[in-house]
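Many introductory courses stop at the sequence. We go one step further.
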Amino acid sequence: MRGAVIYGPGDVRVEQRENPAIIAPTDAIIRVSAACVCGSDLWDYRGINEVARPTPMGHEYVGVVTEIGDQVKTVAVGDFVVGSFFASDNTCEICVAGYQSRCVHAEFVGAGGAQAEYLRVPLADGTLVVTPAMPDEDVIPSLLTASDVLGTGWFGAVAAQVGPGKTVAVVGDGAVGLLAVLAAKQLGAERIIAMSRHASRQQLAREFGATDIVAERGDEGVARIKELTGGYGAHSVIEAVGTQESMMQAIRSTRPGGHVGYVGVAHGVQLPGEELVFAEVHLHGGPAPVRRFLPELIGLIWDRKIDPGKVFDLTLPLDEAAEGFAAMDQRRAIKTLLKP
């Protein structure tokens, strides 16, 4: 099969790889209908994460089941499925509590490389959710977002305790940040402030439900949030970048007693203890337990109540994966969809 492999900074190649095979009786193999490039993939692409060896890429996927292990019960060959980027048994105490991304048997599905024609999914019963039927082609991009970026944005909003009557600020205008705006709208937020300085992303944020746009960053961005909230700060702030500046901007934009939901993959973030003590805000986040939200999100997409697939502003054949990475790295695209 063909699959995308990263060799080093800026070096992504699509090459022949071995087809995946059933290894454990709880595995499933899917024929990938659509995959995509994630903002977190850019940490490798930019050389911020070391790439020690050629590594298959991609952890967001939807597709049709082609083979199952002997112990798989809830997924059948021919089913169209959406799965989380973390495999989970969905039965351990941590999963039952709603944190499937930290399952005691968790495996990173992306280790197999979802930017490919086929993918092995471990712990299929606990990881994959079957759609009500074979989806229409135009729904597939939205279902693909549920595999990660929509589920991650949704978790950010839930972690930030978004709800009716709340003012929400979203730090980050990538796909996760934009879909956090959509999640905040669905969860009933009264006011949603999107922090973005890019016109196309600002427009999409407004389509998803943003009521205000703040272009300033850092201390200036914090000051603008305070100005818009009567000096208090937002009730709920979603951090969707993962840098020192974005995390501190999120904390400082939150009112005392408010909640920060952080879902950006943190790199080099250190929290100043004394400031954190006197901020008196709640912090909650981490790798999104996407599996917790998949049934609800698939339902909303299936019934066409939300259209998160709008975050894909570039669609390419799998063979052009390198251009998909470059376009996102250069901010020519919000998110690239790849069609095997």
